[in-house]
Amino acid sequence: MRHITLILAVMIVMICIADFISAEPTRATHNFELEDAEGDVSNLNDPGKDVVKVSIKTDGKYFSMKVTLKNTIKYYLEGHKAGTVVQFHLDTDNNRETGGKIFWTKNTGFEYLIGIRSCIKYKNGEACMGGLGGPSTGFFSSYSIKQYEQGSTSANNIHDFKWRSPRNDISDNTIMTKIPYTEIGVVSGQTIRVVIEEKDSKEPKEAYSSDIILKLK
Q1: What is the pLDDT of residue 1?
Q2: C-beta separation of 83 from 199 below 8 A
Q3: Three-class SS state of 3
Q4: What does the alpha-carbon distance between residue 173 and residue 137 come to, in Å, rounded to a whole number?
Q5: In this structure, are residues 89 and 113 in contact, taking their beta carbons and an 8 Å threshold?
Q6: What is the pLDDT of residues 86-106, one digit of tens each?
Q7: What does the DSSP 8-state code read for residue 81?
Q8: Cα separation of 45 and 204, whole Å?
Q9: Rounded to the nearest 5°, which phi and psi values hold at 181?
Q10: Whose CA is closest to 3, among 30, 28, 34, 24?
């Protein structure tokens, strides 16, 4: 996500990937949408899941997250591996002194890490990481939530992506899921800080957006 466009109503702001401490944050109210350049992912093993758009809408109770890929989900997953497509690093108290830090950057103060996963159904099971081999019978989304340790890049699972996540079928190039405010302890009207990471980026240091300061509906 080297160059990302943030679209708010009719206003378009360019966000440059740089040193996040000095980069000017972008502010959004209730919702935001990011556009990402095509072809900035690694294809060393499987086709890198090439994200071209990410959006979050808030309604006072839920985050509705939508990820748009360049190609259909079958292109990325049929005969290949399931896994995380996008990660959201959340600073829920909007305080850089509390929480963990992103490994490849100088950015600090994050309480939670949400991973949006693309999963594969098989006749004999399913996978949200790796694969079972053989032809698929369908694809679906899932999400994981980890809580950062104070001052650390480590984060601990607090949400079982295999059994607790709602499962939305994926048939085209969009991955959608819905996350309750209660899972990360936020409330309507709260302001949080968000950094978005394209998981299959060619260069880890170029995978991240700059800060987005989001006021929740």
Answers
A1: 64
A2: yes
A3: strand
A4: 17
A5: yes
A6: 999 999 999 999 999 999 888
A7: -
A8: 16
A9: -55, -40
A10: 34
